Amino acid sequence: MRINHTSVPVDDQQKALRFYTETLGFRVKHNIPLGEHAWITVVSEEAPEATELVLEPAEHPAIGPFRKALVEDGIPYTAFTVDDAAAEHERLVAKGVRFVQPPTDLGTVITAVFDDTCGNLIQIMEEKAQP
Amino acid sequence: MDIYRAIADRTRRAILDELVDRSGQSLFEICGRLIMKHGIGSSRQAISQHLDVLEAAGLIRTRREGRSKLHWFVGAPLRAIGERWPVSTDEDTSHSTDEDIEK
Description:
Helix content of chain B: 40-55%
Order of helices and strands of chain A: EHEEEHEHEEE
Oligomer: heterodimer
Strand order of the largest sheet of chain B: 1-2
Strand order of the largest sheet of chain A: 1-4-3-2
Shape of chain A: globular
Mean pLDDT of chain B: 91
Number of domains of chain B: 1
């Protein structure tokens, strides 16, 4: 058993595809039309054979209130690992990304949280080198 | 809620410390700072209740930014303490240090 996919629910798949590729810099792995929606997955350019992120339509009525409550409390839906949180923050801010939490040193990690414009907050996490 | 009861709790004082460090934090960020920097692993629900106490005492205020609720420190109510019991210029302060004050 392997974990090959994980997903984020998105308000609009095409908008999400643009944000996750053009803004974040991921690469499309699959984009298969399936009726009203599509099976869209993206992967990291740094690790294209690693886990695929599914951009899943946020269709179910329960997802709305669930995500609203997460966003209200600033809770990220998922987290991505970065080498340099400060550099990523700077790069994404220059592209117009809104951060609800700038890079914050929490001892063993530096984290930041941004709005993916598709209904989720996303955390980036830099693991600090241990002395 | 009076400010004396509001600050008579270590977790609530730590929350204020973190909000002084950076204004405008979400509940998630506050909880992350408390566990990672102070070793305070209370539930989000418990921290939320502490925030309610601090807000009722006027020591924090909240504002929506986008769809997130953020928290700010408000220091004005604490000034009243210093005005009520001012440090006089002729008192002997040689025996008191900042280390005497419990975190």
